[in-house]
Amino acid sequence: MSLILPKRNLSRRRLLQLSGLSGIGLLLNGCGTSLLSNSVSQISEPLNQRLQEMLLSQKPVPEFSITDIEPDKLLVNTFDFTPKIDPAQFQLTIDGEVSNPMQLSMADIQKLPLTSMVIRHVCVEGWAAIVQWGGVRLQDLITLVQPKSSVRYIYFKSADGYYESWDIASAMHPQTLMAYQKNGEPLSADNGAPLRLASPIKLGYKQSKWVTEIILVSKLLPVKGYWEDQGYEWFAGL
Ligand SMILES: Nc1nc2c(c(=O)[nH]1)N[C@H]1C(S)=C(S)[C@@H](COP(=O)(O)O)O[C@H]1N2
Ligand SMILES: [Mo]
C-alpha cells in the first residue's frame, strides 16, 4: 500500500504556470521565512531558450510497474561514510551561473510537484535493481534558479565529500529526479537522505547521494567526479 504514490503528470504548460509568479506564490504559501519565498518574487522569466528547446526534444525511458520492484537488490554502495544529516536543518544550495541562486529546505522542496518512477538502477560493479524513486524533477529546480544561457554542465557536491558533474541535457531529462523517497518510503540515510540524484539514463556512480549543493556552469573543471577522476567514464549513459 505504501508503494502506491500519486503520480502527478503535469503538462509542460501546467509546469510553466507553476514555475511562474502566481503559481509559485500559491505553491509556497506558508514558508514565509525561507529564501525560496524571498526570491520567488523575482521569478517572472521563462527558462532560457536553449534549455526550453532541450526540454522539447527529450523522450522518457519506459518505466517498470510497481510489482516489478526488487527491494532486496539495491545494494548500499558507499565508498567512505554515511553522513548524518538533520533533515530539519538541511539546506540545498543551488548556484553558479544563474540569475536566482537559492537555498531550499526540505519543506520547500517537498512543496514542489512530486514525481515517482520505477526504473532500473545499474551499478558498474555488476549488479542492478528495479527501484521506485520519488522526488522533485531536477529540471524544476533548475528552472527556479534561472540558468544563464551559457550553462552547459552541472556539478553536485555531497556531504561525504563525493562530487559529480553531468551534462545539462541529462540533468534536464524528465526522469532525472532529486529523490527523497525510495520504494514508497522516506529515503534512508544509507540510500542518501535527505536528497539524492536518481535517473534511468545514467550509471549508479553518477547518482550522488546526500547532495548539498548544485552548481550550474559553462565549463567542465579538471575535477569531474569522484570515480571519473580515477579513470571511469564521464558521460556514463545507460
Ligand atoms: N555521495 C555518494 N553518492 C554515491 C556513492 C557514494 O559513495 N557517495 N556511491 C554511488 C554508487 S557507485 C552507486 S551504485 C549508488 C548506490 O546507491 P545506493 O547506496 O542507494 O544503493 O550511489 C552512488 N552515489
Ligand atoms: Mo555503483
Written overview of the protein:
InterPro entries: OxRdtase_Mopterin-bd_dom, OxRdtase_Mopterin-bd_sf, TAT_signal. It comes from Halotia branconii CENA392. Pfam families: Oxidored_molyb. The protein has 238 residues and is an alpha+beta fold. The chain has a domain at 61-226: Oxidoreductase, molybdopterin-binding domain (Sulfite Oxidase, Chain A, domain 2), CATH 3.90.420.10. The chain has helices at 12-19, 21-27, 35-40, 49-56, 106-110, 138-145, 168-172, and strands at residues 91-96, 102-105, 115-123, 127-137, 153-158, 163-167, 177-182, 185-186, 196-198, 211-217. The strands form 2 sheets. The protein has a 5-stranded mixed sheet with strand order 2-1-10-5-6. β1 and β2 (102-105) form a beta hairpin. The longest helix has 8 residues, at 12-19. The protein is globular. Residues 1-34 and 37-44 have low confidence and may be disordered. Residues 77, 123-125, 204-205 line the site of molybdenum atom (MO).
